[in-house]
Design goal:
With about 290 residues, this protein is of the alpha+beta class. The chain has ten helices and ten strands.
Amino acid sequence: MNTNENPLSKYFRKPGIYVQIPTGGKFNPEIEKTVLDELPILPMTAIDEISMQNPDELLNGEALINLIKSCVPSIPNPRNLCTIDAELIFLAIKYATYGKDVEHTHTCSNCKEQADYNIDINHILEKFPDISEIPPIKYEDLKVFVTPPKLDSITRLALMEVEQARILQNLTKTQEEGGTLPGNEGEDASVQELEMARQFAISFRKVSKQNVDLLISAIDRIETPDAVITDSDNIIEFMDNVPADIVRKVNETVNNVIPNLKNVSTFEFTCEACNHKEEVTFDLNPVNFSSAG
């Protein structure tokens, strides 16, 4: 008998729901599942809720990563999780924490009447599509196998885009106000314009490179008649030296794997005041999941 066991442990969190993820774990064999291929989802703790209200943690993605670690301990490396699986898991965590109903306030576009509706999270979870095996891209005698985008890659791209947008906003503001860039005080207007153009170009290249890195990270392996290549350096060099058409095909395949989640979270509402019907898309952003409504 373990004498160190906390006598209160039987009151600790218990799974609030079991879910099957869209990919079925095909691209994450390290995930532990039940015999029914389900993942147990624990409710959030008080610390989880506080973290989900921390702007810095939300911006760099740490809050979302830590949320999965806390509520789905059967996933050893959330960063490697496919984004479509993460979207469903975030919704399941909301279910486990606050219950199946989400209150949504809708304003009728016809009569402007406001009304509150309850949306059953089960209906959204059931609409998530299954992601089957992805056919490889064929090039000469090799095959390129891809996976859906991973959570870590999407988070890094979003962070990069936010940073670059902030830089460009500052540049534009400086230009509109006729100010000078730091380090270029005393320079004439033409020099200032050249420097601004240079910094715009640098920002564009950084975001473009991050998009290419995102695409490369979605390549699981490349099979040749003689070997299976998984080394990232080899794959990067390959992508840098093949015709643009092959890169385009890889990009199209990855994009086609990503379902339009608007189809998952769109519902038809009927206004109680004027009977006007319209489709409304429910916000699946996990940042809004730190409260019951």
